[in-house]
Amino acid sequence: MKINDKDFEITDTVEIDPITDDKIGNNRFKLDSVKRNLRTRVFSTLVLLVLLLGFVVSGAVYTSLKTYIETPSEAASYTSIILTIGLLGICNFEMNKTMGFKQWYYQVLLITLSIILFIFPSSEILYDFSFYKAMNLTGATSWFGAWQFPVLLTIYLFITMIIGFADKRINQKNALINVVMTIIIILALKAFSVTSLALSSSNGERDRAMFSFNTIVWIWLMIILSDSFQYLGGMRFGKTKLSPNISPKKTWEGALIGMGVASGTGIVFAMIFQFVTPLKEFQPLREIMQGLGSTSVILEVIMYILLSLVFPIIGLFGDLLFSWVKRQVKIKDYSNLIPGHGGALDRLDSIIFSLFILFIFISCAALI
């Protein structure tokens, strides 16, 4: 059967048409449209990796200098926070516009509120860095209370829902989705900043990284490999649709290949930093894992293996969740910001949801 190249389009993985049998699966890489799309995606991915490197380096520089220099400059931490706020603004703009909050005054109000929520501390333990060190979060004279951040989230919920109720152009369901997804984005980027910048000290020792910037590298590496090999595996071997109603071009074969490669790489990466002594200071989730290791090294290894298996699954769920949101308003991409990928949310959906789960994990761990 002849394939019409002009009508052939791909996004994450290719939708399988049962009428055309397996021949499509064996020839998709030969199509000119596929080759062009793949080249565009590769170029955009390289640019994104450079930007990711800038994010990670700013956090790595800050925590590394804190380890070896008594009073280093705070420029790296402020750079990281400012870059993260910029990314938060882009993501919120895309989500607001998708859910119907298109007017500039809605955008300004909701993005401003989200930045306030991002900056406001959510814990007295995790914010011992940058300007937070001068905010008197701990001690007898602390102004901070654990109830404050949930109250601010509730205020954000009411403001958004009131706008959705007052403006007949905005669907109430979409307003609620906007709140939930925006909170996920905010908490995800909070996890990014806290994990990259949080410090800890004990017995009068100099500050050290609480979690290590390598935590972000570890998780992001797994998500990138999972997404990439889901795409490549689905293109070459995909036959069984994973979720036809949400993401019809994803396949079980691609998903299993991607998650398998990601989990295997994540386990090897974690074990290198676990057992190579000079690198142990930079192991992912350093303080939490070393606490487990002081009880049992086997427990520490098991935790790394479990997290390496779970995070690619979380990333896939995040991808499907953000795709489901697009299906609610019948759009293909959140924006055209990134050639070959769509918007920032189209590219970061998996990592955003993974960091959201990371935020819950480190917040719970900090309370123990």
UniProtKB/TrEMBL annotation:
Q: Which GO terms describe its biological process?
A: CDP-diacylglycerol biosynthetic process
- Which enzyme class? transferase
Q: How does it sit in the membrane?
A: Multi-pass membrane protein
Bilayer-crossing residues are 42-63, 75-93, 105-127, 147-166, 175-199, 211-233, 254-277, 297-322, 348-367
Asked if the Swiss-Prot or TrEMBL record annotates the protein with the keyword Transmembrane, the reply is yes
Task: Quote the EC number.
Answer: 2.7.7.41
Catalytic activity, reaction form: a 1,2-diacyl-sn-glycero-3-phosphate + CTP + H(+) = a CDP-1,2-diacyl-sn-glycerol + diphosphate
Q: What are the subcellular locations of this protein?
A: Cell membrane
Q: What is its main location?
A: membrane
Q: What residue stretch is flagged as signal peptide?
A: none
Claim: Lipid metabolism is one of the keywords in the record: yes
Query: Which Pfam families does this UniProt record tie to the protein?
Result: CTP_transf_1 (PF01148)
GO CC terms of this entry? plasma membrane
Query: What pathway is this protein said to act in by its record?
Result: Phospholipid metabolism; CDP-diacylglycerol biosynthesis; CDP-diacylglycerol from sn-glycerol 3-phosphate: step 3/3; Lipid metabolism
> What GO terms are given for molecular function?
phosphatidate cytidylyltransferase activity
Query: Which keywords fit this entry according to its UniProt record?
Result: Cell membrane, Lipid biosynthesis, Lipid metabolism, Membrane, Nucleotidyltransferase, Phospholipid biosynthesis, Phospholipid metabolism, Transferase, Transmembrane, Transmembrane helix
Q: By its UniProt entry, which PANTHER family does this protein fall under?
A: PHOSPHATIDATE CYTIDYLYLTRANSFERASE
Could you say which protein family the record assigns here?
Belongs to the CDS family.
The protein in question is named: Phosphatidate cytidylyltransferase
Q: What is the lineage of its organism?
A: Bacteria, Bacillati, Mycoplasmatota, Mollicutes, Entomoplasmatales
